[in-house]
Amino acid sequence: MKIDFSALEEEVQRILDTPEYDDHPARDALGRLWEMNLNQWNRVERITRLSDSYQDMMMKREKSLSARFDRHLRQLEKITRISDHYQRVLKQVNSELEQTALIDPLTELPNRRMMMKRLSTEFERDERDKVYCVAMVDVDHFKLVNDEYGHQVGDDVLVALGKAMPAVIAQEGYIGRWGGEEFLVLLPGKSRQQAQQLMEAMRLAIAELELDFDGKRLTTSVSIGLSEHRQGDTIDSLLTRADDALYAAKSLGRNQVTVD
Ligand SMILES: Nc1nc2c(ncn2[C@@H]2O[C@H](COP(=O)(O)OP(=O)(O)OP(=O)(O)O)[C@@H](O)[C@H]2O)c(=O)[nH]1
């Protein structure tokens, strides 16, 4: 049977409020039962309120946690984006630095370090049947250019030669600034005869070059010492022979190619 509690409560309330029942033997017990009932309801209400506010608190907490999580996630994404960007910039700066460390700033040709790197790579390859020549190129009487036209014109001459010589060599070899007014040419796969022909063409091209700097016209020439790789050669021995050949070219009157 279903009990209608509100009707029952109303009825009990009415009995307790009726003065004729004040002396009824069950009046006191009913009064206390009613009191207990009220207390129980109050407790239930308190517990319900507590549970509601606890649920409320948990929901708020969950919301704030999820908001914090989202905020952290966005920050993390931002940091990742920044870090990716910096890594790209760093990579570029590194490669630019590496480039500048290997390029001669005046002529923009590979510098001595780069040439040595290149030579080392070549020498690491299998020695058998290696066909390889190197040529040391030195500008003749370059001191006179500086003395007569000034250091700036001297620089301009080096820049002009740094453009003219690679144009002759093209894909046949590899040229770099060795230092001062000296250049080094690497000629992989070239026999002594082929290298000599190429260096002769380069010497001639330079001798015929007419340079004009602010109306100052001048010509110049280069001496070239060539050496061909021999069995058992080291980088040092190959370069020393090219140097010796260059010395010979200078001694023989300059503007010529000599082979050691
Ligand atoms: N303008 C300029 N001069 C340089 C540079 N590097 C070296 N020189 C000059 O090159 C000159 C080389 O002089 P030397 O070693 O006597 O040789 P040279 O006058 O060319 O005579 P030979 O080599 O015997 O034909 C020196 O005066 C150096 O100062 C440079 O980067 N710019």
From TrEMBL:
<protein>
    <recommendedName>
        <fullName>diguanylate cyclase</fullName>
        <ecNumber>2.7.7.65</ecNumber>
    </recommendedName>
</protein>
<dbReference type="GO" id="GO:0052621">
    <property type="term" value="F:diguanylate cyclase activity"/>
</dbReference>
<dbReference type="Pfam" id="PF00990">
    <property type="entry name" value="GGDEF"/>
</dbReference>
<dbReference type="InterPro" id="IPR029787">
    <property type="entry name" value="Nucleotide_cyclase"/>
</dbReference>
<dbReference type="InterPro" id="IPR000160">
    <property type="entry name" value="GGDEF_dom"/>
</dbReference>
<dbReference type="InterPro" id="IPR043128">
    <property type="entry name" value="Rev_trsase/Diguanyl_cyclase"/>
</dbReference>
<dbReference type="InterPro" id="IPR050469">
    <property type="entry name" value="Diguanylate_Cyclase"/>
</dbReference>
<keyword id="KW-0548">Nucleotidyltransferase</keyword>
<feature type="domain" description="GGDEF">
    <location>
        <begin position="130"/>
        <end position="260"/>
    </location>
</feature>
<keyword id="KW-0808">Transferase</keyword>
